[in-house]
Amino acid sequence: MRRAEKVVLMCLLILLIAGSTGCDMKPDIISYVDATMDLFLKGEAEEYMKLTKSTEEEAAKIYNDYIDIWTNFLIADEISEELKENFREIFREVFAEARYQVKSSKKVKNERKYIVTIEVEKITGLFEGLKTEVGMKLRDWEYAQEKRPNDEEYDRAGYQILYECMRGRQKELTYYEPEEITIEVVEEEGNYGIVNGGYRTIRDALISMEGLAEKE
User: N or C: which end of the chain has fewer CB within 10 A?
Assistant: First the structure.
């Protein structure tokens, strides 16, 4: 989890920059940003495909890769594919409940750039204090074993406990009060693209990641 900030940012930038090109007809800025967020957060691809002329396979890859990014930074070691899919499902369900609305766009004078305002209600409760909770339950599990677990057993139990804690927290997720954020969208050769820092701005506004930054 300590590497989550860098890993998610790097992978998300590569994923969404690659997926934001290729439209033949210039869409409305607000529609473009809204469709892009709907795709990578909720898997809603129809509008994105229409605006960018992307295929169903291309859109599905963007969404699935995004879910895998979140899954993979939590899963540093080999675990069963079944458990890994369980983590994917958590992120699908959490981001399906994301609350946001693209409010407005304003063209920057003499530039092919737009300032887009988005209202967001940040999700909170998934990561805060998570490492402490998992650590305490893992310690209790270790004390309950008849003999000292080896590293493989310890890791396997740790990931199972992590999953159970996150699954339990889903029922208690709440939202901060709405806040407005702004991102930049550039136009180049008839295509739109969210400026790199915009993806981090959106990510940070959508879900509280404080628990991932906790010290060991």
Answer: C
pTM exceeding the 0.85 threshold for the entire prediction: no
Residue whose token pair is 């490492």: 131
Contacts of residue 24, Cβ cutoff 8 Å, sequence gap at least 6: 53, 190
Are 200 and 16 a contacting pair, CB within 8 Å? no
C-alpha neighbours within 13 Å on the C-beta side of residue 149: 16
d(CA 126, CA 154): 23
The answer to whether 54 and 206 have CB atoms below 8 angstroms apart is no
CB distance 199 to 16 below 8 Å: yes
Contact partners, residue 66, CB within 8 Å, separation at least 6: 12, 15, 16, 40, 41
123-139 pLDDT tens trace: 999 999 999 999 999 99
Q: What is the pLDDT of residues 93-105, one digit of tens each?
A: 999 999 999 999 9
Nearest of 5, 100, 86, 2 to residue 44 by alpha carbon: 100
The whole-angstrom distance between residue 106's C-alpha and the CA centroid of its chain comes to 26
